[in-house]
């Protein structure tokens, strides 16, 4: 079984230094220093893939991304990340494909960078992590990014990002448990993912997919809560929107989901029921998650037809990312 995983991470020494110096956003992972060798050294990535039967990774900078740098640094920082990623991929062209880092808070520049990265560097789309300085992508200012993705017929990966301090204070801080607990609740345990699902809900509800039908969205962590609420959302979307189709029409047409290392059978079966294998890809979230042989074994042993297994293992990713 050929295996492609699609939410895998990298970083560069230059970006790490720039992030530490200029970013106002907190470090996205408390284990970043420990994980640095697996983020920056592509030979280590290949060794891990060989050990655990992973044929290809689609990789991106979704951790301490140049996206969150102040505007004065984000454009050049994102461009540098993409150039370095392309250079690393050129050394292992059959093992990696890349997604471009985008300076999303400067949408015109982000659109230019996406087009450059796809047409000149061979990237397979772009990645946006979380809200943009507290702004969601349905704001009309971000339209150039979607217009560029649609023109290219490419994919935007909507990855979680660090939520705002205001969100954390209102939703997760409590006098009843320690600050470390609220940090985890606001982050990888719940908050990041809820915000990412809201991001996607707003994009569809705002009519962006009705306006632009030729781009695709990839969504990790089994769709960031959205698939389990599709029928509920549809029940209200016809009342509160003027879109010609229900929410699920756009979601099932243009969104593709993956587990991001959440190898759980009940969620997989729900995703399969709602989306079908042709809208499911595989992902580990390396190196933030290291599941080892489970990456392959879980899928190999899952309750799937062989056609479904092959689609999830590689076929859907090949279609979505033009591999």
From TrEMBL:
Keywords (A to Z) from UniProt: Lyase
* A family per Pfam: Amidohydro_2
Query: Among its keywords, does the record have Glycoprotein?
Result: no
Instruction: Please name the SUPFAM superfamilies in this protein's record.
Output: Metallo-dependent hydrolases (SSF51556)
The domain of life is: Bacteria
Molecular function (Gene Ontology), one example: carboxy-lyase activity
Q: Which GO terms describe its cellular component?
A: cytosol
Q: Which GO terms describe its biological process?
A: secondary metabolic process
Q: Which residues form the Amidohydrolase-related domain?
A: 45-323
**PANTHER family in the record, alphabetically?**
2-AMINO-3-CARBOXYLMUCONATE-6-SEMIALDEHYDE DECARBOXYLASE (PTHR21240), AMIDOHYDROLASE-RELATED DOMAIN-CONTAINING PROTEIN-RELATED (PTHR21240:SF30)
In Swiss-Prot or TrEMBL terms, this protein is called O-pyrocatechuate decarboxylase
């Amino acid at each position: 079984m050929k295996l492609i995983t699609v939410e895998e991470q990298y970083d560069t020494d230059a970006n790490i230094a720039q992030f530490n110096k200029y970013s106002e956003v907190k470090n996205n992972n408390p284990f970043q220093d420990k994980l640095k060798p697996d983020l920056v050294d592509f030979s280590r990535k290949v060794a891990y893939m060989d050990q655990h039967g992973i044929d290809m990774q689609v990789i991106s900078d979704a951790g301490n991304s140049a996206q969150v740098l102040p505007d004065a640094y984000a454009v050049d920082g994102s461009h540098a990340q993409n150039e370095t990623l392309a250079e690393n991929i050129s050394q292992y062209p059959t093992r990696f494909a890349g997604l471009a880092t985008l300076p999303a808070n400067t949408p015109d520049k982000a659109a230019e960078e996406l087009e450059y990265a796809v047409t000149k560097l061979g990237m397979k789309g772009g990645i946006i992590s979380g809200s943009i300085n507290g702004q969601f992508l349905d704001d009309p200012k971000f339209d150039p990014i979607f217009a560029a993705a649609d023109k290219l017929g490419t994919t935007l990966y909507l990855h979680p990002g660090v939520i705002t301090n205001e969100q954390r204070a209102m939703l997760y801080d409590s006098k009843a448990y320690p600050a470390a607990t609220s940090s985890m609740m606001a982050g990888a345990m719940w908050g990041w993912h809820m915000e990412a699902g809201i991001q996607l809900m707003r994009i569809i509800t705002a009519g962006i997919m009705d306006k632009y039908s030729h781009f695709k969205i990839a969504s990790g962590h089994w769709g960031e809560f959205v698939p389990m609420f599709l029928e509920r959302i549809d029940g209200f979307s016809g009342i509160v929107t003027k879109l010609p189709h229900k929410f699920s029409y756009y979601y099932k047409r243009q969104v593709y989901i993956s587990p991001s290392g959440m190898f759980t059978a009940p969620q997989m079966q729900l995703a399969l029921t709602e989306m079908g294998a042709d809208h499911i890809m595989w992902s580990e979230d390396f190196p933030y998650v290291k599941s080892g042989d489970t990456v392959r074994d879980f899928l190999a042993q899952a309750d799937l037809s062989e056609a479904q297994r092959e689609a999830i293992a590689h076929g859907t990713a090949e279609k979505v990312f033009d591999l």
